[in-house]
Amino acid sequence: MIIDAVANLTHYNKLFPAIPEAVEAMKSIQQQEFGKKYFFKGGYFFFQEGVTKPIEEAQFEAHRKYADLQIVLKGEEYIAWNRLADLTEVLPYDPEKDVQKFTGQNTHKMKISEGMAYICFPWDGHQAVFHVDQPLHFTKAVIKLELNTK
Q1: Considering only CA atoms, which of 133, 91, 119 is closest in space to residue 18?
Q2: DSSP secondary structure of 66-90
Q3: What are the pLDDT digits (tens) for 85-138?
Q4: H-type helices in the chain, by residue range?
Q5: Which H or E element spans position 109?
Q6: 3-class secondary-structure state, position 34
Q7: Surface-to-core class of residue 128, CB atoms within 10 Å of its CB (0-12 exposed, 13-18 middle, 19+ buried)
Q8: % helix, strand, coil for the chain, step of 5
Q9: DSSP state of 65
């Protein structure tokens, strides 16, 4: 997992060449439609907004076809990370949704605020959109970057 400032995303362009196009496409949206998928060469993105859930209700997940680049546009959320080997599968991998769900310890957690971004790789079990004490409001972009799995 990579956690960084949005301003530093250009440092990861060699790893993910679609980042500039994704960010440019995201910025070009005049009116955000939450939940709608917007496509670009190399993946797609959508916007989410809401209130975080209690940490006890959050599940870990992982993806295989896409890396998650999540950008907090307003507000904040907590995220947690753990190795897949240290998690217990609760829902098997669904190739249509590109998601596998897990449960486990969330000992590695961090608050992500406006202007921050994180990238989750297939080996990263990650929980998102939760709080540890009081609910938080957030708006974010979830960018799915295609992985070269050949």
Answers
A1: 119
A2: EEEEEEEEEEEEEEEEEEGGGSEEE
A3: 999 999 999 999 999 999 999 989 999 999 999 999 999 999 999 999 999 999
A4: 19-27
A5: strand 108-113
A6: strand
A7: buried
A8: 15, 55, 30
A9: S
